[in-house]
Amino acid sequence: MDQLSRSNVKNLPANQIVTNKFPVMSYPSGNAPEINLQNWKLAAYGLVEKEVHWSMDELMKFPQISIESDFHCVTQWSRFDNQWKGIRFNSLISELKPLSNAKYVMIYSYGGYSTNLDLDILLGDDVLFAHTHDGIPLSSDHGGPLRLVVPKRYAWKSAKWVKSFEFMAVDKPGFWESRGYHMRGDPWLEERYWPELQR
Questions:
Q1: What is the CA radius of gyration of the chain?
Q2: Spelled out in words, what is the top-level CATH class assigned to the domain 36-197?
Q3: What is the C-alpha separation between 46 and 59, in angstroms, rounded?
Q4: Is the link from the previous residue into 137 a cis peptide, with omega within 30 of 0?
Q5: Are 83 and 100 in contact (CB under 8 A)?
Q6: Distance between CA atoms of 65 and 70, rounded to whole angstroms?
Q7: What would the pLDDT profile of 53-91 be if each residue is shown by its tens digit?
Q8: Are 21 and 197 in contact (CB under 8 A)?
Q9: Where are the domains of the chain?
């Protein structure tokens, strides 16, 4: 079925256009960074009882879950019914034990990218570190070996090429947020940019 005729197209956020394509957005580096999987690890640190570094083999020992979610880019395209597989963010919490004052998380990526998120959003059951999309291991263009998927936020919050995340008491802007993008990025509230930039 053509996605444009999908019965729940009414669930499209304001000012979005549906596409079957999956455009590649790679700024700031311009190209997908080269990542050596032999040395790759996902690090978690900051306001946690224990700093952790997981290899891909170690991450694959966590429960692997699949979700179906829509994907809304701030550049106004949306792709329905994406199939993602990976590790729920909240599955990692038991090893980290965030401190009580940890309220925000900064995600860091290879290639110089970063984005900030409320910890409460990341703990949702639909948020995961994905390694597979539509049944195929993530290509480097789409964030492989591991990308964050946060369906309730615009896609810039679903950081590609994730290498680490930091628990913080005080929110601070990431790469796009420091350039005028909204700190929250909720597509249903159309939080694309700071209000003063829309005048």
A1: 16
A2: alpha beta
A3: 20
A4: no
A5: no
A6: 16
A7: 999 999 999 999 999 999 999 999 999 999 999 999 999
A8: no
A9: 36-197
- DSSP state letters, 128-148: EEEEEETTEEPPGGGTTT-EE
Structure pTM? 0.90
- Report the candidate in 144, 87, 137 with the shortest Cα–Cα distance to residue 110: 144
Residues 6+ apart with CB under 8 A from 164: 42, 43, 44, 45, 107, 108
Separation of alpha carbons 107 and 164, rounded Å: 6
First-to-final CA distance of the chain: 39
Q: What is the mean pLDDT of residues 118-138?
A: 97
| Predicted local confidence at residue 2, as pLDDT | 44
Mean pLDDT of the chain: 91
Give CA–CA dist 43/164, Å, rounded.
4
**pLDDT digit string, tens, across residues 178-188:** 999 999 999 99
For residues 163 and 34, the answer to whether their CB atoms sit within 8 Å is no
Sort 50 into a burial class: Cβ within 10 Å, 0-12 / 13-18 / 19+.
exposed
